[in-house]
């Protein structure tokens, strides 16, 4: 019998701690601490990601797992969104509204062709090219049709085959960047089949067939640039599936089965010879967007298994176990609370002041409570019963500035500082008001906006505030994060009461307008690690919101949604450890905690079977 050294050319190592690098996959070692043999094993799985801005079905997709494009769809036919691997951002609308189009290419060179629009139902010939910013008209396809999930290749070497325009079709069209021409006839008349690969090496999977009526036998075919050849049958026949990869390394997931008339979450990979079932989608769905990627890095978005969804899932095969970013329930606050202040993060937070029910002089509170990620303990009461203040700092070095006190919601400019157990007086801000944005530290803080002087901004040195240049857009009910030399203020309400999507960054002296939020909102919470890694969650958009957005220094994109829709939540924290407490309509004690995506190598203990 061969030894491990003879097979692999090296001996089994003895280590006191496990390796943490993906490059160590396949290595076996002896862990001297646990007295076990271990190895890093490849894992295949779907994981949740941030939702689409607008949930819908019939989406055309292009690009990769970290740079995808979603275009059109049934519920908002001309809408475009871009995915950066973390979340979705809005793009410019298509010239021709449609759903169930063919598509291929990349996020910055995406091609969409065909589709349909209703009512009345009309089948489309239009082709459009997306350059990463805007859409431009291209030569039309020859045969008007739709074919959800179909289309392969690039924007200058595309392939569109089969489809439906009142009847199932079997024609193939090829595009060279200038015109469409006829290609080899598809082996059967079919629609809603998936496609992957290239113009000269394509793979077709699944689809509806006319005989027997609306059957989904799971046929596959390959194309060599001139003719189609029948391939093996999928394990689970379906139409409306999402596909990606190449002709010899393809992937198909989800879809709709008949005659059982049921959506499926089954995922299969193809190696050029046969189909193999692998990890299932988390949510069964059909008519969703997907894109090329590979059999180890694929993304699915939108679709329906009932109502249209905004869900995004990523398929990954690697030596890493990925835990998706998400909000989860925390330990409830000691009482219902709204308009309270917050500082710190989900494992070291302090929440203070606010109101225990719709505001009146009798239900304001000066209570302060510290949170360690598991339980709440009382801290020293605030010197005054204050709510709607600007907040900054950490659990053991927090600041509260401005706000309102009874009677009659009197505006104040008072400042207080907290050391983890008790409050003392701090520097008064230069403008009395409520719901300004506060961020930074107790000795290097920033305040911006507020109801008293909506474009006011100032810097705090731990003793006094110094006024700086005004905000470009005056607002209150806003949020902010960052430092005294690199800060950001986002959203809010501008006089005379309009919600704003405006975002501004701060360099220590002046403010600069940058990319707008996806959705204008006020009464939200903000956090993040910097002005180029910022988060905004909950709030009011015309109704109470549970959505979250993230900013990367250029663009706002979606992030995981919260469990409940609320405004006026006490919120703070970094990009991976935020906390939201309480909120209004009705007032609650609910706590939610945010954890960013994590990745760790998949270490397995080896046992003898």
Write a structural description:
The protein is built from 1 helix and 60 strands. The protein has 3 domains: 4-40, no CATH class; 45-319, 6 Propeller (Neuraminidase); 342-595, Neuraminidase, CATH 2.120.10. The two termini are 18 Å apart. The chain is mainly beta. Strand 19 (194-198) and strand 20 (201-205) form a beta hairpin. The mean pLDDT is 94. The longest helix has 5 residues, at 4-8. It is globular and about 80 Å long. The chain has a 4-stranded mixed sheet, with no helix packed on it.
In the CATH hierarchy, the third-tier topology of the largest domain is known as Neuraminidase
**Order of adjacent strands in the largest pleated sheet:** 1-2-3-60
Say how many strands there are: 60
CATH superfamily of the largest domain: Kelch-type beta propeller
Tally of distinct domains: 3
- Count of discrete alpha- or pi-helical segments spanning 4 or more residues: 1
CATH architecture descriptor of the largest domain: 6 Propeller
Class of the largest domain in CATH? Answer: Mainly Beta
Largest sheet: 4 strands, mixed
The percent of residues in helical segments reads under 10%
| pLDDT averaged residue by residue | 94
Question: What is the CA–CA distance across the termini?
Answer: 18 Å
What is the 3D shape?
A: globular
Rg, Å, rounded: 28 Å
- Uncertain runs are none
Beta content comes to 35-45%
């Amino acid at each position: 019998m061969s030894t491990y050294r003879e097979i692999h050319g090296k001996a089994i190592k003895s280590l006191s701690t496990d390796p943490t690098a993906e490059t160590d996959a396949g290595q076996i070692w002896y862990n001297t601490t646990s007295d076990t043999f271990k190895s890093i094993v490849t894992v295949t799985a779907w994981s949740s990601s941030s939702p689409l801005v607008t949930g819908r079905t019939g989406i055309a997709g292009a690009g990769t797992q970290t740079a995808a494009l979603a275009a059109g769809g049934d519920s908002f036919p001309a809408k475009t969104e871009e995915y950066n691997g973390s979340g979705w951002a809005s793009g410019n609308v298509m010239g021709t509204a449609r759903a169930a189009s063919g598509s291929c290419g990349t996020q910055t060179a995406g091609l969409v062709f065909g589709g349909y629009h209703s009512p009345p139902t009309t089948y489309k010939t239009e082709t459009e090219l997306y350059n990463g910013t805007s859409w431009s008209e291209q030569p039309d396809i020859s045969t008007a049709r739709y074919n959800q999930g179909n289309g392969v290749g690039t924007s200058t070497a595309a392939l569109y085959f089969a489809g439906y325009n009142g009847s199932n079709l079997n024609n193939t069209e090829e595009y060279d960047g200038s015109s469409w021409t006829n290609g080899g006839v598809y082996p059967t008349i079919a629609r809603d089949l998936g496609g992957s690969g290239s113009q000269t090496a394509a793979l077709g999977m699944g689809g509806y067939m006319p005989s027997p009526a609306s059957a989904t036998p799971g046929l596959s075919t390959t194309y060599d640039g001139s003719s189609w050849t029948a391939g093996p049958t999928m394990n689970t026949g379906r139409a409306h599936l999402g596909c990606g990869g190449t002709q010899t390394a393809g992937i198909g997931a989800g879809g709709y089965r008949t005659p059982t008339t049921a959506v499926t979450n089954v995922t299969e990979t193809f190696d050029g010879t046969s189909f193999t079932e692998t990890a299932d989608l988390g949510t069964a769905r059909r008519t969703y967007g997907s894109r090329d990627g590979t059999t180890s890095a694929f993304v699915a978005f939108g679709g329906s298994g009932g109502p249209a969804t905004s869900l995004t899932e990523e398929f990954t095969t690697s030596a890493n176990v990925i835990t998706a970013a998400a909000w989860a329930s925390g330990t409830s606050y000691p009482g219902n609370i709204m308009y309270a202040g917050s500082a710190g993060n989900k494992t070291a937070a302090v929440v203070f002041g606010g109101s225990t029910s719709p505001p009146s002089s009798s239900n304001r509170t000066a209570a302060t409570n510290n949170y360690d990620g598991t339980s709440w303990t009382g801290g020293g009461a605030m010197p005054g019963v204050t709510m709607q203040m600007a907040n900054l700092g950490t659990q053991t070095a927090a600041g509260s500035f401005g706000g309102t006190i009874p009677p009659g919601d009197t505006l104040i400019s008072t400042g207080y500082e907290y050391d983890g157990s008790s409050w003392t007086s701090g520097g008064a801000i230069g403008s009395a008001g409520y719901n300004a944005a506060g961020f930074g530290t107790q000795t290097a803080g920033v305040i911006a906006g507020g109801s008293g002087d909506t474009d006011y901004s100032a810097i705090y040195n731990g003793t006094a505030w110094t006024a700086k240049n005004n905000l470009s857009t005056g607002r209150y009910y806003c949020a902010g994060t960052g430092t005294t030399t690199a800060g950001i203020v986002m959203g809010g309400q501008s006089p005379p009461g309009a919600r704003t999507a405006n975002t501004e960054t701060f360099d220590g002296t002046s403010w600069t307008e940058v990319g707008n939020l996806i959705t204008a909102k006020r009464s939200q919470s903000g956090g993040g690690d910097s002005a180029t890694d910022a988060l905004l969650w909950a709030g009011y958009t015309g109704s109470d919101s549970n959505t979250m957005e993230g900013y990367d220094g250029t663009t706002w994109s979606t992030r995981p949604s919260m469990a409940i829709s609320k405004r006026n939540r006490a919120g703070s924290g970094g990009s991976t450890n935020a906390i939201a407490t309480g909120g209004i309509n009705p007032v609650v004690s609910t706590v939610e905690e945010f954890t960013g995506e994590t990745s760790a190598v998949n270490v397995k203990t080896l046992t003898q079977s």
